[in-house]
Design goal:
The chain is α/β, with parallel strands linked by helices. The protein contains eight helices and 17 strands. The termini are far apart.
Amino acid sequence: MSKILVIGEISDGKLNSATAKVVAAAKQIGGEIVIALLGSDVGAAATEAATLDGVTKVLKVESAGNAHILAATFAPQIVELAAGYSHVLFPGTSFGKDTAPRVAAKLGVQQVSDIMLAHSATSFDRPTYAGNAIATVEAPAEPLVLATVRLASFTAVGNGGSAAVESASTSAALPTHTRFVSLEAQKSERPDLQAARKVVSGGRALGSSDAFKIIYSLADKIGAAVGASRAAVDSGYVPNDLQVGQTGKIIAPELYIAAGISGAIQHLAGIKDARTIVAINKDAEAPIFEIADYGLVADLFTAVPELESKL
């Protein structure tokens, strides 16, 4: 039977919703599921993780050196924790994509990136060619399988579990070549882009950061997160942490509204798992209309305010 170690992610002291989706992937593989949480104080997150359906144990790895999320610090500890496990799974977030390759290198194993379906303990589907093709890959079972999970492909498990919470420690030495200096992060009252049920995105057609305010306004009206195309980010309208697409964030909201986004292939790769896609664009030939569930050929500066006024 598989024994799976899920590396949980903590944001602002709370369990990131990505962890529940990684557990869903682990359940698809089948076997015993253990969550490891690293930090200086992970008590609250551990309590939450223990309630996730299918989890048998939660490991708390607490130390002052883990106060800040640093791949160079976490990786050697995870390598020690991985002993005796058949799988180590990471969320396909910035944290997971930064940490997993270091762990794979130290363990001498090949990493499987962005798994979206498990056929067995060693056979997985993953997207390639910007999501235009799905490849089935076979990973060596020995010494273990290490993978990142494509969050958009899994539905978070529910609560109802009652896993044991245990403290754990490692003898891994903290790196001397890497140290935490500071963290600059965008603060917003809006939902997290990768976890939001509703997302409103704007593209280059908005023309300026000031014009982007109509996107924020509509998003606030319906309680949605705000996203943007790469073109809008490159033009400086919004910060790059709002970028949706192959080179940004892969999302799977229940509702995705794209205003002034033509639908470049890299953007479509980031939204193809959305349940309902609404496109607003004055170009009737825009590629995004090919995948949209609802399309409106109109000037976004007229359509978006009118839509908001009717909500």
